[in-house]
Design a protein that fits this description.
Length: about 450
């Protein structure tokens, strides 16, 4: 009996030791199974396996790393960042930019499957900030989105990433059932300047929509394909205001010499939207001879026309219009005041930036967000304080503007604030936080001395 008791006690002790170290034997297979679940996009299963593995063996750095990425793909950035911080603390490293970028890509991919179209659109746009490395799968997901608006954003992002001409989904979009998608595809392919897409863009000339036909002509001109200007000039006199406006915008962008009188005349069109297009097109055209006409347009009855006119005067570097722009700073419309102030700052009137401080407190969230963006464009050195205040704004659109300003102006100094944006209660803010943070983690955005 004593021998048996001694044997049982020894066996029990051995089993306890084995149990204590069992995770060490099981870890490779457990981690392999978790990776397999991740690869087949079974993120919940992967997370469960990694939870068990880490509980059994807390020192598994590879498990923490994988779980951080998995949590990104599950849309749980708070858990992803907790694992990230645990990993870098344990490893004694200041950061792991590659891992941070993977977390951000996971979150963007998750948001591209969100049930709200606005959120998916924000994620598709934020991919443009994130950059091309590793984002191909997510971009293709956005390009196949059921909502036309999201597909438009995805096509534009493909253009920003320099991938439009290479992606079949973008080329195929010239035949999309939705005209806005077709127009976006034609325009983006034209901007690619890649001759391989010429035959695809030519299809737009026979599109059933007249505006798509006009955009196809513009795209072919950008692709160095000879196109007569007469159809565009004729469209600028079309009975449809939307066609007239589109034609004027294109004539300004391509700087068609014969179009200058037509563009100037467009400032007096009976339709306000056409006058707005004309005012913007004159800024694109770049002719100093139109300064007086644009200054006169600052008195137009429609605020959108006054807005575009003020912006164009700044783009034309129209010093002669400074007095008129100071008058527009007192306009009854907040966005007109903002456009005038931004142009004045561009023209060297730095004190006009005080208007931004006033407008960042405007009751309208659209004005507040525009003010943050204007400050980032014209006065980067002073934009950070504005953006940090705007991170606490109650309107998500304003917080998005703050995230974009910080990401574009502050470089790696913005990382703590962008991490905060990943945890924002609004998913559109999280999307742009992920886009900018992923770009900074990859060192794509060294700004202001970084």
């Amino acid at each position: 009996m004593q021998v048996g008791s001694t044997f049982i006690a020894a066996l029990t002790a051995w089993l306890l030791v084995l149990g204590t170290n069992l995770s060490a034997f099981a870890s490779p297979d457990s981690l392999k199974a978790a990776r397999a679940a991740f690869e087949r996009k079974d993120y919940d299963n992967a997370a469960k396996r990694l939870d068990d593995l880490i509980q059994a063996s807390p020192g598994q750095s590879a498990a923490y790393e994988l779980r951080a990425v998995v949590q990104g793909y599950r849309g749980r950035p708070e858990h992803a960042l907790a694992d990230y911080d645990q990993l870098v603390t344990t490893a004694g490293k200041p950061d792991r930019p590659d891992l941070l970028r993977d977390i951000c890509l996971g979150l963007l991919t998750y948001l591209l499957s969100h049930d709200q179209e606005m959120v998916r659109g924000a994620a598709a746009t934020a991919l443009g900030e994130f950059g091309p490395a590793g984002s191909q799968t997510a971009l293709n997901l956005a390009l196949r989105d059921p909502a036309p608006r999201v597909r438009v954003f995805a096509i534009q992002t493909a253009g920003r990433l320099g991938r439009a001409a290479a992606l079949p989904a973008v080329r195929d979009a010239v035949a999309d059932p939705d005209v806005s998608v077709r127009i976006a595809a034609l325009s983006t392919l034209g901007l690619s300047k890649d001759p391989v897409v010429v035959s695809v863009v030519r299809r737009g000339l026979s599109d059933q929509d007249p505006i798509a036909q006009l955009v196809a002509r513009e795209a072919l001109i950008r692709l160095k394909q000879p196109q007569p200007s007469q159809p565009l000039l004729q469209a600028a006199r079309d009975f449809s205001p939307s066609v007239r406006g589109a034609a004027l915008g294109i004539l300004g962008r391509i700087k068609e010499p014969a179009a200058l009188p037509v563009l100037t005349l467009g400032l007096h069109d009976p339709d306000a939207s056409v006058r707005s297009f004309a005012a913007g097109a004159l800024g694109d055209f770049g002719a100093s001879s139109t300064v007086a006409a644009l200054a006169e347009a600052l008195n137009d009855q429609d605020p959108y026309v006054r807005n575009f006119a003020a912006a164009s005067l700044g783009r034309l570097n129209a010093k002669a219009a400074i007095p008129a722009l100071w008058g527009a700073v007192k306009d009854s419309d907040s966005l007109v005041r903002l456009a005038a102030a931004e142009s004045l700052v561009r023209l060297g009137e730095g004190e006009a930036a005080l208007v931004f401080r006033e407008l960042v407190k405007d009751p309208e969230y659209g004005v507040r967000s525009a003010a943050v963006g204007a400050m980032a464009r014209t006065s980067p050195a002073r934009a950070t304080a504005f953006a940090l205040e705007a991170l606490d704004d109650p309107a998500p659109r304003v917080r998005v503007a703050a995230v974009q300003a910080l990401g574009r102006v502050e470089g790696k100094r913005a990382i703590p604030y962008l991490r905060r944006a990943l945890l924002d209660k609004d998913p559109t803010v999280r999307a742009f936080g992920a886009g900018h943070l992923g770009a900074l983690a990859a060192d794509r955005k060294g700004k202001r001395g970084d």
